[in-house]
Every structure is written in structure tokens, then in C-alpha cells.
Design a protein that fits this description.
The chain is an alpha+beta fold. Helices cover 47% and strands 7% of the residues. The longest helix has 19 residues.
């Protein structure tokens, strides 16, 4: 008797039908979302991002208020029976949520934050300030995205082997530089001047012509000219005041972006800056900003 074979497509359909937990992959063309849909998407994304963090915070509250005492003698037994958590995993979640709290208070504010406990596990034994520094370096190494736990761990291990160059040993607030070796979204600032605003332990917050950035000492080539030390902060103020004008034309933005790459102004560039200030009714801060101090 010949055994009848089930067609491959039929077998596949049967398997898919039995597996009700499988996730279907739907490919759709890009489509604009409504304001309501955008709001819902952001809300749901935040829930996904904060899942391990919220879990850790809830565990801390359950422990601190001893809300397990009606059914269990110890908190460890309660977590094992109720959630299937081992003692170690509970400690990881608690420590991870505390790291996230610290990162939210640090310099990165509400920017890129961890999305899993493993990403912050290497940070738990570091001092709070150093946690923020290492996380920022990890984000930069990941190209401006959420770094993997491996990236964070590698930076922590490199720090143990060879301490990072401390920013305070490299420069002072107010020093001026040319930016270099930046990558990802900050690559466009390579070749621009920058002014040190604040010194973190291993990074420097700098002002450029249209933004502030957190960079590493190796991204900064110092400009030693005393004239540049005096003139570039004034040039930054003049450009920022112009950029604050809501009616600024796109041509004006182009000119100001070009000036953000010049460590000194030629007579023509100086004239363009003065013309823009007069056109938009912004007063001149210092007539010496346009002097060529490289000669």
C-alpha cells in the first residue's frame, strides 16, 4: 500500500494553524500616522522600553512595604513562587532600576535610555557619575542607538584595564577646539569649532554654532591662539542670537552654518554677519570678531 504524502504547502498551513502563538510578519508600505496614532505609538514604545525598569521599581516597593507577608515568610520565597524569579534575578532587576534612575538624573536626561536589564548590569558596581559617563560612551560607540550589554561591558572592562583620559586633565571651561573623529549623527560637526561648556569625568560638553554636544577628549583638537580663545565665544553668541530669530531665512541658516566651520572670519564673512545682524535687528556684540587673527 502506497503511503499518501501530504503536500508541503498543506503541511505548512497545518503547522501554522496549530501554533497560535506565532507572530505573523506583515510588510506594509510607509504610511503617515494620525496624531492619535502617533501618541499611542509613543505611549506603547515607552512601556516596552521601561518594562524591566518598572518591574524593578515594583519589586523594590513590594519588598520595602513587606506586601508579601500575608502569604510568605520571606521575600525571596515570595518572588520565586509568584514570579519564578531567582534571588539573583531579583537583585539584578533592583540594581538595574536604580541605575536607570541615576541615568535619568544625569547629563543624558530623557534621551537614549536602557531597554533591558542586561544593558545596565555592567554599570551596577560603578559610582553614579561614572555610570552616566560610561553609558554615554556606550551610546556613542553604538552609533547613537541603544547599546548592547556587550558594548557596555567592553567599555567597563577597558576602563578597568586602562582608565579613560580625564577631561579635567585635558582642558578648562572656555577652551576652544576644532572637532574631529566624530561619527554617526554627529559626523557633520567634524571640522567645526567648539567651546568647552562643562567638564564631566571623561567627556566634555561643548557648544557649536547650532547645538551642544557631549564629546570625548580625543574628539577635540585644541586651538592655542589667545585671539581665538577670546573671539570664538563672541562669535558663538552672535550666531546663536541670530538663530533664535523665528523669521530667519534658509539662506541665513546656510551662512551661519558656514561660519560655524571657520576659526576666524574673512572680511567678506564678517560683512555677511554684520549685514544679517542689521537685517534682523540684532545688535553687534564686538566689532573685533571679524579680525583675521591667524596672521
Amino acid at each position: 500500500m502506497t503511503k499518501r504524502k501530504t503536500p508541503k504547502s498543506s503541511r505548512t498551513s497545518d503547522i501554522q494553524a496549530e501554533d497560535s502563538t506565532s507572530v505573523s510578519v506583515e510588510v506594509v508600505d510607509p504610511e503617515e500616522l494620525t496624531e492619535e496614532e502617533l501618541s499611542l505609538r509613543l505611549h506603547l514604545e515607552r512601556k516596552v522600553e521601561r518594562s524591566f525598569y518598572e518591574c524593578g521599581k515594583a519589586i523594590i516597593e513590594l519588598r520595602n512595604k513587606r506586601l508579601y507577608r500575608s502569604t510568605h515568610k520571606t521575600f525571596e520565597e515570595y518572588c520565586r513562587d509568584r514570579f519564578g524569579f531567582t534571588h539573583r534575578s531579583v537583585n539584578y532587576l533592583i540594581a538595574g532600576s536604580m541605575v536607570v534612575d541615576n541615568l535619568q538624573k544625569g547629563t543624558i536626561g530623557s534621551q537614549i535610555l536602557p531597554t533591558s536589564e542586561r544593558q545596565v548590569r555592567p554599570l551596577t558596581k560603578l559610582e553614579p557619575d561614572l555610570q552616566c559617563e560610561v553609558w554615554q560612551l556606550s551610546v556613542e560607540e553604538a552609533g547613537g542607538k541603544v547599546p548592547s550589554g556587550r558594548i557596555v561591558k567592553d567599555i567597563v572592562e577597558r576602563l578597568k584595564e586602562k582608565p579613560l583620559y580625564k577631561a579635567g586633565d585635558f582642558c578648562l571651561v572656555g577652551d576652544v577646539f576644532i572637532l574631529t573623529k566624530l561619527d554617526a549623527t554627529e559626523r557633520k560637526y567634524n571640522g567645526c569649532w567648539a567651546i568647552a561648556l562643562a567638564l564631566n569625568e571623561f567627556t566634555v560638553e561643548v557648544a557649536v554654532h547650532d547645538n551642544t554636544l557631549i564629546v570625548k577628549p580625543e574628539n577635540l583638537n585644541k586651538i592655542d591662539s589667545p585671539e581665538a580663545q577670546h573671539q570664538l565665544p563672541l562669535l558663538k553668541q552672535r550666531i546663536w542670537r541670530l538663530r533664535d530669530r523665528p523669521e530667519l531665512d534658509r539662506g541665513a541658516y546656510t551662512v551661519l552654518e558656514s561660519l560655524g566651520r571657520q576659526s576666524y572670519l574673512t572680511d567678506v564673512e564678517f560683512g555677511l554677519l554684520q549685514w544679517l545682524e542689521e537685517y534682523y535687528g540684532v545688535g553687534n556684540l564686538d566689532s573685533n570678531v571679524g579680525m583675521d587673527y591667524t596672521h
